[in-house]
Amino acid sequence: MLDPLAPARTDGRVRIGRREVAYTMAGRGEPLLLVHGLGSTRQTWNGILDGLAVTHTVIAPDLPGHGESDPPAGDYSLGAFAVVLRNLLIALGQRSATLVGHSLGGGIALQFAYQFPERTERLALIGSGGLGQQLTPMLRAATLPGAKVVVAVLARFPESFTRGFLRGVTRAVPRFLARPDSGPVAEDLHRLIDPRQRRTFVRTARNVIDWRGQTVSATESLALLTDLPVLLAWGTDDRVIPRYHHRAVAEQLTVPQLLEIAGAGHYPHITAPGEVLAALAEFLVSTKAFHYTEERWRELLTSR
């Protein structure tokens, strides 16, 4: 249930080129751009959006082809999604923002920081993709031939049935999925009954994943983020993306803030929103926004 005392939310659509992006906006202050994961929508942030909007201008879009946003013209790459986010900020009158990304959204946020460092103030990565190859077999299977048909069949089951089935699977095969994640996964899967969103899910997955795991990695470019404030958050029971990805990345950053949530899975912003909100609030108040200069960026590029 939404907090009646929270800052009012505004749902809107903005035309970027020939296509529209749907978004929710709330609050005042420094801008925060919330980037959801693969197969999800901006509704994934409902548990923390109002809390963040007390002190910040929060912008939560549906990525192209997700939720209520129009699908891409044909480019489902991380770079193309990052460009859409850049254009969205411009359209809404925001020069820069702190990006908060979950899963695929973390990978997009990282790509955004590399492409548009002058528009990036901080990064908060929650169960982020793009930090290593290892990935759950469930997502690797989405890249195989016939995946669209299989996903279409699975999406037609009632959400309550899928949720119950996944709970049973987590009890029988604990390594398959964290128990708290059965609800969010069932919700995302049922959403793929929409052919447009199903096509986006499969095509996006194939841009960043193959049968072996993640094919796009940001780790080689982490040196460019030396001066950027970064928060890394993950659940100790994440079965989708290994938790050691975040620990390994933390060792390559200068002074990252870390949040490890005991018992949480891949969706801590949904299943443990209080802990995530508190960590984000502390991160935002204790760090200064990154200030891009071409001289410093050149130094980082050429000294690697």
Automatic annotation (TrEMBL):
InterPro entries: AB_hydrolase_1, AB_hydrolase_fold, AB_hydrolase_sf
Record-linked Gene3D superfamilies: alpha/beta hydrolase (3.40.50.1820)
GO molecular function per UniProt: catalytic activity
Record domain AB hydrolase-1: where: 31-273
GO cellular-component term (any): membrane
The protein's name in its UniProt record: Pimeloyl-ACP methyl ester carboxylesterase
Species of the source: Paractinoplanes brasiliensis
